[in-house]
Amino acid sequence: MIRRWSIARRLFVANLLLVLALTAVVGTAAFVDARDRAYNDAGQRMQAVAAAIAANPLVLQAAGTPNPSAALQPYALVVMANAHADFITIMAPDRTRWTHANPDEIGKPYIGTIDPALHGQTFTEVTAGTLGPSVRTIVPVEDSSGAVRALVAAGVTVRTVDVAVSARLPAIIAISLAMLAGGSLASWLLGRYLRSVTRGWGPEQLAQLFAYYESVLHSVREGVVLIDTGGKVVMYNDQAAELLGLERSDVDPVAGVPPRLSDLPLEPSLHSLFESGRTAHDEIHLTGSRILVVNQEPAVGPPGMRGRQRPAVFGTVATLRDRTEIESLGSELETMKTLSDALRAQTHEHANRLHTIVSLMELGRSADALDFATKDLELSQQLTDHLVASVDEPVLSALIMGKTAEAHERGAELTVTVSGGDGLQGLAVQDLVTILGNLLDNALDAAAAAPPPRKVELGIESGPEGTTFTVADSGNGIDPRIVDDVWQYGYSTKAAGIGQSAGQAAPSRGVGLALVRQAVKRLGGTLSISESMSALGGALFRVVIPAGDFRKEAE
Description:
Residues 209-251 form the PAS domain. The chain is 48% helix and 20% strand.
């Protein structure tokens, strides 16, 4: 049964037992202290009474008479009544009583210790006499020569002292009850708070939950980042460390101060998202070599008791999914679509040419048909031979031929200039398709949106130091103020659709140049936009990829 108790109940019971034990100890200590103080107070009061009697000349005078009791007994009774003493015994040095509260005891020996008093010392003791246990003080009565002529004993019974102690018991009991009530209330409030925080779970359940939590965070294939309200990274799992390029961290909170967001090498867009704490659903963010889908929600604690308090917000929880492979497959699919469109365009053009040749032959103009077919074959073969001879990468050749056919279909002219094409062998095919395919698509869109003549120029120059790609178009160019924005994921300069504002991309827009930038960055190259250097009057994109071992590492 105890194993099912929550932490709050266990802590309440433990604190209650502790408060009970503490109350018992404190109450006992207070009672003992009160009793000791009562005995000390009684001893000091009796010492003052006995000393006052011993200093009275009447005692010394009566001690020299044959019947001291005749003068001292009435005096002792008066002092007993005024000093609230239970007994005052004046005796001879040989213990013979001259006075006593009980007249029958006069003349009998005193019961108790008198040796220190016979040596001139005053002392207090607790001993039993004819009236029972009592607190008494014995003071010597000395003459002018210092000889002890009599002894004075003044005392109160223990019963009387206990009555005084009992008078203090209500205060002690009240203090003990106040401690018990205060401690119980504090335990109840603490238990109430813990019950709301731990949701009524016991330590075994919390230990099991943490074991599951740790196992999930280590094994899940999504990155998880926990950020508190102060901008500190409380925890991130192994997958998050891999996706963000961070050092691996334990699931358990590390000792010391957690790192701040500003201390981690995060991309600006991710840093801005994490720092804002806003809710995000399936947002795309690009890192150096990855495309990440990020979701972020606030970490909200349990609701307050009876709805009186708003739930506490402890920070934010961000999850990261790697979309790089999906985008890579999308790029390959886009390449296949480009080749398919090129084949469709070529099929369309080929059908038109065949119709022309057939019509000429039906008109009996066989020589014109042969001449038309020969010239068309020469033009097509010239472009094919030029690309095959200049570019040693078949996928890139197919891509350029497809874009050439697409440009022809859209009323534009694509000119290709290749110098030293052997340097393309070290580049990954996927990166070539991503870089050139997106740059040519944007250039064709820009040229098609501008008035004639619509032209696009592609330059490929390879050498020992690397490969340079240049793509120029005859479009309207790019505003210098937004040059840095066009590389951002989701930003597009193309015409906005219904319900969209300028600069806001449709779901399929604002992606190409961001992927180009990522691919160039992955290959260690540089990317720039220039309008002043474009002979066609539009934008000029220049990509420079260095040669060396970096390509092999990127692959």
